[in-house]
């Protein structure tokens, strides 16, 4: 199945799960536009709103988890950089001119 053929909610989940947050953001904007049109025309069923609310909660949890992983990596880099030897001083060269 082509990515465009999948429901928008599934595409958002896939983008968030793969760490493509810019793509997920664009898909959220598209979903927001669709919801706005749905709400303008008629009342939106409670099940639809519950589905979107669950997707929001899931995306929020995934973003928090990803942020924690990134913070952990940064902390590991900070700790490992303390044990690295200092950079060597640049060597000076003498050039002989004739």
Would you give an account of this structure?
The chain is an all-alpha fold. The chain has helices at residues 8-17, 21-41, 46-82. The protein starts with 7 loop residues before the first helix and ends in a 16-residue tail after the last helix.
Helix content: 55-70%
Give the overall silhouette: elongated
- Biggest sheet character: none
Strand content: under 5%
Q: How far do the termini sit from each other? A: 73 Å
Q: How many strands appear in the DSSP assignment?
A: 0
The helix-and-strand class reads: mainly alpha
* pLDDT < 50 runs, ≥5 residues: none
Along the chain, the helix and strand elements come as HHH
Mean pLDDT: 89
Q: Counting H and I runs of at least 4 residues, what is the number of helices?
A: 3
Q: Return Rg in Å.
A: 25 Å
């Amino acid at each position: 199945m082509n990515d465009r053929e999948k429901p928008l909610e599934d595409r958002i989940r896939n983008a968030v799960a793969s760490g493509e947050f810019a793509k997920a953001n664009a898909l959220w904007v598209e979903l927001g536009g669709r919801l706005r049109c749905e709400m303008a025309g008629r009342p939106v069923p409670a099940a639809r709103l519950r589905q979107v609310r669950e997707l929001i909660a899931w995306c929020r949890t995934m973003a928090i988890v990803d942020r924690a992983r990134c913070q952990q990596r940064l902390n590991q880099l900070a700790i490992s950089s303390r044990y690295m030897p200092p950079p060597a001083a640049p060597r000076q060269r003498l050039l002989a001119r004739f």
